[in-house]
Every structure is written in structure tokens, then in C-alpha cells.
Amino acid sequence: MSREKLVVIGNGMAPGRALERLFELAPGRYDVTIFNAEPRVNYDRIMLSPVLSGEKTYDDIVIHGDGWYVANGVTLYKGHKVVEIDRAARTVTSAEGVTASFDKLIIATGSLPIVIPVPGHDLAGVLTYRDLDDVHAMLLAARRGGRAVVIGGGLLGLEAAAGLREQGMDVTVLHLMPTLMERQLDTAAGHLLQKAVEARGIRVITRANTKALHGSDVRIGPAHVEAVELEDGTKLPADIVVMAVGIRPNAAIAKAAGLTVNRGIVVDAGMATSDPDIFALGECAEAGGQVFGLVAPLYEMAGVVASRLAGDASTVFNPSVTATKLKVTGINLFSAGDFADAKDREEIVLRDAARSVYKRLVLKNDRILGAVLYGDTADGAWFFDMIRKGADISELRETLIFGPAYAGGNAADPTAAVAALPDEAEICGCNGVCKGRITGAITTLGLKSLDEVRAQTKASASCGSCTPLVEQLIKLQLGDAYNPAAVQPMCPCTAHGHDEVRRLIVAKSLKSIPAVMQALEWRTSSGCAKCRPALNYYLIATWPGEYVDDNQSRFINERVHANIQKDGTYSVVPRMWGGMTSSSELRAIADIVDKFAIPAVKVTGGQRIDMLGVRKEDLPAVWADLGKAGMVSGAAYAKGLRTVKTCVGTDWCRFGTQDSTGLGVRIEKFMWGSWTPAKVKMAVSGCPRNCAEATCKDVGVICVESGYDIHFAGAAGLDIKGTEVLGHVTTEDEAIVVIAALVQLYREQGRYLERIYKWAKRVGIDTVRKQVLDDLERRQALFDRFVYSQKFSQTDPWAERVAGRDAHEFRPMKDLARAEAAE
Amino acid sequence: MTIMDTGWIDIGALDDVPRQGARIVRTPSGCIAVFRTADDRVFAIDDRCPHKGGPLSQGIVHGASVTCPLHNWVISLESGTAEGADEGSVACFRVKVEDGRIHLAASAIAFAVGDTSAT
Q1: Using 50, 70 and 90 to split pLDDT, how confident is the model at B114?
Q2: Inter-chain CB proximity B58 and A525 less than 8 Å
Q3: Could you tell me if B7 lies within 8 Å of chain A, comparing CB atoms?
Q4: What gap in Å lies between CA A556 and CA B33, rounded to an integer?
Q5: Of A567, A812, A816, the CB nearest to B9
Q6: CB-CB contact of A736 with A719 (8 Å)
Q7: How would you classify the pairing of strands A75-78 and A30-36?
Q8: C-beta atoms of A816 and B38 within 8 A
Q9: Is residue A556 less than 8 Å (CB to CB) from chain B?
Q10: Mutate to test the interface with A, among B37, B46, B49, B60 (most CBs of A within 10 A)
Q11: What is the DSSP track for A435-488?
Q12: How many Å apart are CA A45 and CA A762, to the nearest integer?
């Protein structure tokens, strides 16, 4: 049976969601072809602001990676703009000349940013804020520093301004109306917002009517914007201008095809255009005379289109009240519903100037019509739910403004607000996830963490602003078994968790421990023994070649490159590549043991020799003798690559399938010296008999006739866990690339002291596999970053200390014992 | 025990001790750990953790405290007592910095012989 052909024009979030639903409802029914004018996959447009501010990267906001399209048999034309819909022939054609025929068509062309047609609007340096290309253009401009003028003080404009400020630019926001975000906020909240924005060093000019943009002298070169002139004659110097004044539906192609177009492409309740086989979806669609720009109604549209395509003619699009949150770190703002003043309306207002809290509820006939919360937005979901349900609040009126915690007269319990919500209350607006779905998933699937809830329900997986609510729900369900506060802070010196700190180190370009502590408001003057080594690692991993290692923030073992023992002596383990040694190495070790009267010598679990009980002051001399015999530090003390165990493979073994020893030595020689969040132990076995015990290592390789099975995330310590299979590769070179990419991903995402198996469990085995095995571009980028960081890490620390570095570590400051004896 | 209080022993330059680090001074009865904080204050305490005798001089220095390298007890450099839930203390010795030189009270050597609970 031949499948029906579905063509989608546009690859944004709405069609992405529609296809996801469609594949669930009617798997295999359609052959899907997507034309995307942008040269990339489906990404989370809501998260562009965090990309601009540097808090996230493009990779972080991808919704559907390349693998998703392959797995679902979708043909995706990236960078193909559709130029014609031929309704008679049932085909669409792209500018690149590709023609595809369709049985059903979805138009999801989104919207275009509005450019104010003032003189100079086409100068270089005048940008809009709509897609990733705009963000890249802004980041590029911000790198040169200078002044940015953002025209538009709405949601997007303020997020753009905050992002550019975070990137170090001098930013002015121009807003036509008297107060910011006047569509979502009343004037009082608008003023509070303006104060908060100004407190970040952003200048705000309201009632500002742009008259013209002025460019540089064309005789010098191509004209670039230099200044913005306002109606009142004020001239503001500007190196870039960002227009964020609004969007309009992108309906040109539909209009050209003869479909009914008003402001947007007109659709009926089933999202069909005037041609019943053609649907319109997203910001380009006009339903019930309205166009939509927030993600929640767009996702509702997507659900309707999917049901219709799956053959259910009963679902209709019924846009609900929407709520808005501003995604600027540190500013809490929530608004929902209709809050305009009118004669028949009443209001309840709470102001707490000292805390900068403002709450306003607009009521009519004992029902809440709208809510504006500034400063403290915790009760937003509760009010929003009552607005949507049109709940009668006459009983609650006295304490209504204080939120659900007081609704029953009980004392304020932080989880009471969320406990009071009914099951159908929406928690995650982006993904339309209600409370019942989350609590149900926690109970039936036994979910235990925020990440698991995100993976299973998508709640808080888009913009993340409902994360506290989701965490409270988990806490409610699991009780004391879940304590988000306990897992969050790195240590008592800070309220930030590990991931947050890593993110902010990148976002704020923090390049020293004091800089991190200053910028992130550490509570202690110089941290503690928990956070300092973690910060030192994060900085060294983030800024290779730039960050200067802080020895005093390292645990003693890494500071002196030996392992401290219970009596204050040290143990010394030289590297034996792949576990191979020789008579000359063994002879040298034997001589050293005699010369320094080293009390114990032992073979380690990682195929090395350990000399135990070396006095600290003898360490440099011991290392000098080892160095003369060609041995370097075995890093047995490091949060870094420890050992690669091997078996003898095809060199000797009658069962060996590959040169496991050679591969182990190669891996070790390539990867030694790299610092990682916790220790990394590897092994390579030459056949599935697995004599090197590779299947309980952080990374293990099992050689087979056809190549190499790469394993990871094993453990044989506090926990015992067999490895997960990462995948199969056919050559040694590829094995090395995959392993290095895997370790680099771990270096970038792992929390300090978190072993690979714990990290993999937290982020998901599949996620790791996707990035280091399936996505070849990503793999190569990770590999390249690993190679780059290795340039700065492969110096033998023992040789350095033999040469005199850190000599103070190994000598007493003063020997009064001897002095007195001499007297 | 104030007999030797007038005597000071020059044990080295301030810069011989790294900031947020420590050096040891050997005495006939064991080691004294000399610490330098991030803000250049100098402290001298017995180099034995009250818990299991770990060498405190090898720990990470933060604020005016040191975390023992063996089992992470945190010892106050100012009082010599264990912080948090742990209980115990080590001897503290008088120390002063003059013209960039660190001087240890001569009495420290007498104290270090035997009486480790004195402060």
C-alpha cells in the first residue's frame, strides 16, 4: 500500500510538534517531506535569548537532531525556501528547484519581524531578532563591543537588550509607549520592570519615536549604522540597532497560491485553509480572527493538525488564555489574562516596595480575569488556573492575593501552593503539561529526578521557567526521598548548583576563581575545600590554555602529584602504557625501592606498580631516578585519565581478534594528562572473553573480528555496574575519535567528582550516544576540543618538579630539630 | 608557661609560604604547620589533625580554616578547634610577621614537646 504524501513548509516548533504527535497517532501513514528555509533542524526558538546571553548554545536548544528525521523517515531539505505552491498539480517547488508532490500540505511559514520603514532601516548593522542567524549577527557585533540601541521594549526587545548587555555592550532600549511591555503589564508593574532593567545598566527611554537611522560616510566604505535619531531631535550613537517591535504572519506564499489570507492565512477550527487538503499552522495562521505568537496556543494548533491528519475530524482549535513570562535571569514577571481597567471590574493589589513585589488581580463578578505578578511569581500557576476555569473566588477573596498557601487559612508551606492545584492545572505552558500528567508519570513510572520527569513528560523541558513548580510536584509525590534543595548547591558557600556554575562561567566569561566568587556572590571570602577544587576544574576545562591552574585549590594529591597515605607519606605509581613494562623499568624500580628504603611495593588493579611509604621530601629524587629510566607520572592521584588496562590481544593470544595492547597504549598516549571531573579508568580486551575486564570500566573496548565495540559507564567500586554499549566502530582511528569525543563531552558536562556512570545516568545514555556516535559533526567538534585542550596538558608533572618547580612543597620551611641538635 | 615568650625565632620570609598554603617547621617533637591566608594573615598550629593525625599542612586553606587531607575535618586556624559537628582541637602557636619575615614564638618548641592541648 502506498503511503500518503505529506509536505510541510517550514520547520519551526509548531510543525515539529505536529509531526511528533502525528507519528504517535498514525505511525507510518505518511511519507513526510519538510522544506526549511533556515539551513538547520528544528530548534527551540523560545530559548534564543539564553543563546544570546551566552547561557546556552545552539546544541542545547535543538529539539529534533538529525537523527530524529532519519528515524522517522522524514526527508528534510535544509536551506530550501519554497517559492511556489501549485494547487492544481498538488506540488510545491523550492528556490533550489526541488519539486515535491503532496496529498496533504502544512504551511508553517511562521512570521517575519516588522522593520520600521524609517530612513536608514536598510543600513548595515540594523538587525532584527527572530532566528538563530539574528542571534549570531548580534553576537558577532557584540564581540567588537560598543553601543547597541534596541527599538522595542516588549518581551523580545528586553530579552535582546539583556543579552547584549550580558555580552558587554552599552545598551539603550527605545520604547514608543509610556511603560515597558504594556501589552502584558499594567503601568505599575511596567515601572518596576523599568527599574530592574535600568539596574542592570541598560538605559530605557520611553515615549521614544524613532525618526531616522543615520549611517557612516559612504565615501569611507559601505554605510554602517552610526546613530538613531528620535522625533524630538535626540541623537543616540549606535554601533548596532536591533528592531524588536513585533512580527507579522508570513503568508505571502499562501496568498500567491490563492488561499484566503487576511492578516494571516485564514483557517477553520480544524486548522484547514480554504483548501481542505492544506493546513496552516503556527504564527502564519489566523484562527477566529486572531493570530498567535506564544508557544502554548501554537502547540495546541499542532495537536489539532496532527489529529486531523490522523483521521480524527472532531478535534478543534480552541485558543485558551495565555500567560507570559520574561526570560531574563533575575527578573521575575508573570502576566495572564485581561487586566485592562474597566467600570465593571474590581482589582486587588498588593505592593511591597522594599521587596519589589507587586501583585494585581483584576476581578469581575467574583471571577479572576487577569493577573500581573512582579517580583514573586510563585502563585502564577494557581491564579492562571483559576482564570482558565473561571473559578468563583468569593469564598477566598479575603486572602486571595496571598495565594493558595493562605487559601485554607493554613500556614505557608512552600509546596502548599502546588498541592492545592487541581490535576488539570497547567504546569508547563510551553509543552501544555498539566499537573495530573506529571504526578501520574512520577507514580506509575517511578520517576525520581527532575531530569527523568523532563524526559518522560516534557514538563519544564523548553523554557524552564516552571522548573520550581515541577520540583515541588516531585517533592510532593516523593516526600523526603526528594530534596531539590539538597542536590542543588555546590557547597554551603553558594546557592548555585554545579551545572548553574558551569553555565555561568561560560556565560559571563569568568576566568579565575576570585572572578567566579565575585560574580556569583559567593558567601565565603575564599570558598572551601569542596568548591575550590571544583571551580579549578571547571575553569581549566572551560578555558584551556587561558586559565592558570590554581595549585592551592587542588587536593594535596594533585598538588604534589602523588597519593597521600594515612601516615602522611606518599605512594608513587609510574605510568606503564597499557600495562606493558620491561626489564629495564623493573630494574630501575627495584633500585629505587632499595635506594630510598621504600617499605612496600604492590601491583595495582590497573596493571601498574605502586611504591608505598615514600617520604614527601624524597619524592623529587624518586621521580628523578624514574625519569632517567624513561618513566613518567602515572597520574594515579588525578581526577583525570588513570590507566588503560589491556590484554595481550593478537600479539600473543590465540583468541585475540585485534591488537588490543596496541590500541590501549595508543589511547593512553593520546589521552594522558587530561583533567576530568572524576577519575577515568579504561580497558581494552582483545576478544569477548574480556580478560582486561573492560565491561566494568568508565570506558571499555571489546575487540571483535569486525572491529571494536565501545562500552562506557561501568563501575566496580562503591557501585557495581556493567557498562552500556555505546556502539560499534570498524577502525582503531574511529575508536579513538569516539572515545575522545565521549570523554570531552563528559569533561564539559560532568559535575566535579561525578564518575562517568553517574553522569551518563543523569543525562541519558541515548543522549550521549547521539552526540558522540550518531551526530558526526558534533563528534568531530568534541574531538577537536579535546585535542586542543591536550595541547596544554601533556607535560610530565614529575619532570617539572625534578627541574625545581614547586620546590617549597617538598622542603620544610625551617628545621628547628636539627638546629637544636646542633646547639 | 611564659618563660620563653620574649623569644622569637625567625623561621623564614612571608613569601616562602604560598597564599592559601602552608609550610612546615620541624621541631624535635614533631612538625608545626605555618599557614598563610589569602589576606596574608599567618598562623602556626600543630601539624596533626585531632582526628587521625593527618598532616594539616597538606590541606586546602580557605578563609582562616584548613581542611585536613585525610578525612576532611575542618580546623580553625585561629582557635585550633574543629569546626562543624566534629570535636577536637590542636595546639596553636604565637607567630608574628615583621618586615616580611615570619617569627615563631620560641615557646612553641617547648609546647610542642608533650603538651598538645595547651594554647
Answers
A1: very low
A2: no
A3: no
A4: 15
A5: A816
A6: no
A7: parallel
A8: no
A9: yes
A10: B60
A11: HHHHHHHHHHHT--SHHHHHHHH-TTSSS-TTHHHHHHHHHHHHGGG--HHHHS
A12: 25
CB distance B109–A816 less than 8 Å? yes
pLDDT confidence band for B115 (50 / 70 / 90): very low
* B59 close contact with A: CB closer than 8 A: yes
Query: What pLDDT digit, counting tens, does each position of A354-406 carry?
Result: 777 888 888 888 899 888 888 888 888 888 888 888 888 888 888 888 887 76
Q: Are strands A563-564 and A247-249 parallel, antiparallel or unpaired?
A: unpaired
| In contact, A504 and A539? CB cutoff 8 Å | no
User: Where do we find the cell 617547648?
Assistant: B110
Handedness of CA A452, A455, A458, A463 (dihedral sign): positive
ipTM reported for the complex, 2 dp: 0.87
DSSP class of A751: P
The x, y and z cell numbers of residue A105, run together, are 500540505
In degrees and rounded to multiples of 5, residue B3 shows phi and psi of: -55, -45
pLDDT band for position B110 (cuts 50, 70, 90): low
Q: Which helix (H) or strand (E) holds A516?
A: helix A513-519
Residue with cell 547597541: A148
Question: In angstroms, what CA-CA distances link A95 with A7, A77, A99, A130, A506?
Answer: 16, 11, 10, 22, 39
**Highest mean predicted confidence (pLDDT) among A33-47, A71-85, A657-671:** A657-671
Using one digit for the tens of pLDDT, what is the confidence trace for A35-68?
A: 999 888 888 888 888 888 888 888 888 888 888 8
- Per domain, the residue ranges of chain A are 4-111+249-309, 126-245, 498-554, 558-628, 641-790
Q: Which CATH number fits domain A126-245: 3.50.50.60, 3.40.50.920, 2.40.70.10, 3.90.1170.20?
A: 3.50.50.60
Residue carrying the nine cell digits 514608543: A176
Sheet holding A210-215, edge to edge: A210-215, A225-230, A235-237
Q: How many residues does chain A have?
A: 823
All three cell numbers of A88: 492544481
Question: Residue A403 region, left (φ>0) first, then alpha (ψ -120 to 50), else beta?
Answer: left
What distance in Å separates the CA atoms of residue A21 and residue B63, rounded to the nearest whole number? 56
pLDDT band, very low/low/confident/very high, at A562 (cuts 50, 70, 90): very high
Q: Show the beta-strand stretches assigned E in A276-345.
A: 278-280, 285-287, 290-291, 323-325, 333-337
DSSP state of B4: T
Nearest of A551, A634, A15 to residue A304 by alpha carbon: A15
* CATH for A558-628 (3.90.480.10, 2.40.10.340, 3.40.50.300, 1.10.10.10): 3.90.480.10
pLDDT at A561: 96
Residue A823 banded pLDDT, cuts 50, 70, 90: very low
Helix (H) / strand (E) containing A661: helix A660-671
Following DSSP, what letter does each residue of A21-84 receive, concatenated? HHHHHSTTSEEEEEEESSSS-EE-GGGHHHHHHTSS-HHHHEEE-HHHHHHTT-EEEET--EEE
A528 and B CB contact within 8 Å: yes
CATH 2.102.10.10 fits B8-112, yes or no: yes
How far is the C-alpha of A720 from the C-alpha of A588, rounded, in Å?
Answer: 36
**Residue A727, C-alpha cell as written in the block:** 556502539
Q: Decide yes or no: CATH 3.40.50.720 for domain A641-790.
A: no
Q: Which whole number is the average pLDDT over A808-822? A: 77
Question: CA A378, CA A369: separation in Å to the nearest integer?
Answer: 18
Give me A545's grid cell: 590554555
Where are chain B's structural domains?
8-112
What lies within 8 Å, CB to CB, of A720 at 6+ separation is A696
Q: Check CB contact of A532 with chain B, cutoff 8 Å.
A: yes
Q: Which CATH class is domain A4-111+249-309?
A: alpha beta
